[in-house]
């Protein structure tokens, strides 16, 4: 197993700086992570730093609440891709999911997938705010809308990834979509537990510490 290639090496703090993003990229290059995950305003910084490498630039859309209207999320995604993003992690509209309006959820994801084109789209469910039934329905909406991944969490709500949520998401999407476990993965044991549960990608700010356990 190439554990390093599971990681989206992440820096999404509101006080992040360009120097911090460049350090993140240097670490991603050193360990050959799958990607770095940064806020949209730092996509161009990361893209320049990682040019010519196989480390992807991932960004977040509608982050962290998912409460923007779909057209704004789509525009945000288009701009991030123009700036050099290779992967897009969007926060779905959690309020609509809680209201049971999964038709809205699906249409929103489809609109953003259209904006992304061939760029990988991951859908952040914020599983700590959803029931199991709502998680399943959001996964189904993501599949119908042709997203590429479902993702557990922003890391900015009341909880992060859990083995239970990852197992449920993997059971629902099967092999059709990837599953990203994000938020609260601090060490190698936790990372391996997520992979065992079905995660094909892990979002973590502790990626370097986890690799150094290796």
Q: What does this protein look like?
A:
The protein has 214 residues and is α/β, with parallel strands linked by helices. Helices cover 45% and strands 17% of the residues. It has nine helices and eight strands. It has helices at 18-31, 43-50, 70-83, 94-98, 102-116, 132-144, 163-173, 188-197, 207-213; strands at residues 7-11, 35-38, 56-61, 87-91, 120-124, 149-151, 178-182, 201-204. An eight-stranded parallel barrel has the order 1-2-3-4-5-6-7-8, surrounded by six helices. Helix 5 (102-116) crosses helix 6. It is globular and about 45 Å long.
Beta strand count: 8
Give the overall pLDDT as a whole number: 98
Q: In what range is the share of β-strand residues?
A: 15-25%
Instruction: Please give the radius of gyration in angstroms.
Output: 16 Å
Helix content: 40-55%
**What gap, in angstroms, lies between the N and C termini?**
12 Å
Which structural class is indicated by helix and strand composition? alpha/beta
Q: Note the overall shape.
A: globular
Strand-and-helix sequence, N→C?
A: EHEHEHEHHEHEHEHEH
Major β-sheet profile = 8 strands, parallel, barrel
Q: For the largest beta sheet, what order do the strands appear in spatially?
A: 1-2-3-4-5-6-7-8
Count of helix runs: 9
